[in-house]
Amino acid sequence: LAFERLDKDVAKRLENTFAWHSYAHSRSKVATGLATTEEVDALPPVCWRMVWRNPVNGRGALYLASHAYGVEGMDADAGKALIEQLTEAATALGVTYLHQWKQGDV
After folding, report:
1. How many Cβ atoms sit within 10 Å of the Cβ of residue 65?
2. What family does the Swiss-Prot or TrEMBL record give for this protein (predicted)?
């Protein structure tokens, strides 16, 4: 898991860090105005912990994706930079699995 590959000090800091997530933010990365006003109103930004622990094995996992746009307690640029850094680490070549779909897989 990406969380387990992080520097120990970074991982420890993230344990008590929260990120802001927004459906509208993720849709705006695809196309401006993609999220309708109704969707934006129905799905307001929410703040979630950046590390979730598996209740069975205790392993930590990063919780971030295209909907994460800011980090609680950090200025906007620093939060964005941290999210980008973590996303790059989690999706780097050699640490992800890319399935080559073929007929009959599903």
Report:
1. 13
2. Belongs to the TfdA dioxygenase family.
Closest CA to 62 of 8, 18, 9: 18
pLDDT digits (tens, 9 = 90+) for 26-63: 988 888 888 889 998 999 999 999 999 999 999 999 99
Domain count, the chain: 1
Domain annotation covers residue 96: no
Q: Residue 21: which domain range?
A: 2-90
CB 17 within 8 A of CB 72: yes
95 assigned to some structural domain: no
* 58: its two tokens: 């205790």
Q: Under a CB-based contact definition with an 8 Å cutoff, are residues 16 and 45 in contact?
A: no
Residue 21 DSSP class: E
Other beta carbons less than 10 A from residue 89's beta carbon: 16
